[in-house]
Amino acid sequence: MDRRTSAPALQPKSSLCVVLNDFLLDSKSPTRSRVQDWHENRSNKYSKYFMLEKNIHGGDKFTAVVKELRTSLAPLSGRSLQYCNDACLRRYLEARNWNVDKSKKMLEESLKWRSTFKPAEIRWHEVAVEGETGKAFTANFRDRDGRTVLILRPGMQNTTALDNQMKHLVYLIENAILNLPQAQEQISWLIDFTGWSLTNNVPIKSARETVNILQNHYPERLAIAFLYNPPRIFEAFWKIVKYFVDPKTMQKVKFVYPKNKDSVELMKSYFDMDNLTTEFGGKGNLKYDHEEFSRQMAQDDVKAAKFWNFDKHHPETNGYSAAEVAPKTECLAPPVIV
Q1: What is the pLDDT of residue 60?
Q2: Residue 306 burial (CB < 10 Å; 0-12/13-18/19+)?
Q3: How confident is the model at residue 183 (pLDDT cuts 50, 70, 90)?
Q4: What local confidence, expressed as pLDDT, does residue 45 receive?
Q5: CB-based contacts of 100: which residues, under 8 Å, 6+ apart?
Q6: Core-most of 18, 57, 75, 104, by most CB within 10 Å?
Q7: Mean pLDDT lowest among 51-65, 81-95, 129-143, 161-175
Q8: Are the C-beta atoms of 149 and 190 separated by less than 8 Å?
Q9: Residue 162 pairs with which residues in a beta bridge?
Q10: Which residues make beta-bridge pairs with 202?
Q11: Neighbour count for residue 288 (Cβ, 10 Å)
């Protein structure tokens, strides 16, 4: 819609658009041009409406849409009910631009996936073989916003069974979420391409499934993904993979090159360089210790069992996120100074 023409009133599907309609109909409203600008993008209608509502009245109407989504769902129980807390529903709504119908469909598909894949029931001993080379693990440092950092080293791939590779990745994502501090819901990814080549490259099918799981079943869990110093030949592989990546996720993927000044500054804006390891241009030293990491994961398995109420003696969490009920983990993979 051309912002220079008069903005027609929205045809509200519910009472949620009433305030926005009032402002659109009031030609003397000082916020009229701002509303027209935001109204241009129809696909993001709900998100922009709430920004306007919150800015003008100082209130928070997100809660109303969260309630609308919850009401639209079939009755939930057990771990599905625990999973669908308000923060979870907000993430699914955000991933679908606050469209309740699309968010409902996405969430229902995730609940179905979780009922069959059973990510909450995966334990480290089931996937430990996947981690023997340190191809993926949670770091012993956080980014500047306190997010858990997941390190992936595709050049150290050591298995060929796709099912178990995905099981290992999902386990690490669940573990990273479990260990988030209270104020955070997202995790950061660092992908080190040292040793990567077309001969040990992740198959397209595996890359596509990784993207599918992250986008569709862990919406808004990715804060940023740094692809650090990928070789030029990776560009051909990326041209295929990015076809499966939605635009919102694509914006979070950053290619970083150590000799590029802008890349270095970008890394500095996200990480304390004293903590960031040398593999990513920092000053920290970290050597993956599989035995030590396995001990830590075994401890976290106990914590996960308590959170998901597999331990019958654990009190109910009343819908709080893992970050709100889980004790803080100081170090997930203790470094070995080299």
Answers
A1: 66
A2: middle
A3: confident
A4: 43
A5: 46, 65, 68, 69, 72, 93
A6: 104
A7: 51-65
A8: yes
A9: none
A10: none
A11: 20
Tokens of 9: 């009133």
pLDDT-derived band of residue 113, with 50, 70 and 90 as boundaries?
A: very high
Distance CA 227, CA 257 (A): 9
Residue 162 CB neighbour total at 10 angstroms: 13
Share of the chain above pLDDT 90, in %: 58
Read off the pLDDT of each residue in 256-281 and give the average, rounded to a whole number.
Answer: 93
Any residues with CB less than 8 A from the CB of 139 and at least 6 apart, and which? 148, 149, 150, 151, 190, 277, 286, 332, 333
Q: Which amino acid is at 69?
A: L
User: DSSP characters for 173-216?
Assistant: HHHHHHT--TT---EEEEEE-TT--SSSPPPHHHHHHHHHHHHH
Say yes or no to pLDDT of 170 above 80: yes
Report yes or no: 75 and 108 within 8 Å, Cβ to Cβ. Answer: no
Alpha helices in the chain (DSSP H): 18-25, 32-39, 45-57, 62-72, 78-83, 86-95, 100-117, 124-127, 162-178, 204-217, 234-241, 247-250, 261-270, 290-307, 322-325
Provide the token pair at 181: 């501090």
CB 278 within 8 A of CB 120: no
- What's 119's DSSP letter? G
Residue 174 · residue 122 · CB < 8 Å: yes
Tell me the pTM.
0.75
Residue 309 φ/ψ region, left for φ over 0, alpha for ψ in the -120 to 50 degree band, beta for the rest: left
Tell me the chain's radius of gyration from C-alpha atoms.
22
> Which among 290, 298, 311 has a CA at the least distance from the CA of 124?
298
Would you state the structure tokens that stand for residue 238, as one six-digit string?
Answer: 């990326």
Tokens (6 digits) for 70: 């919850």
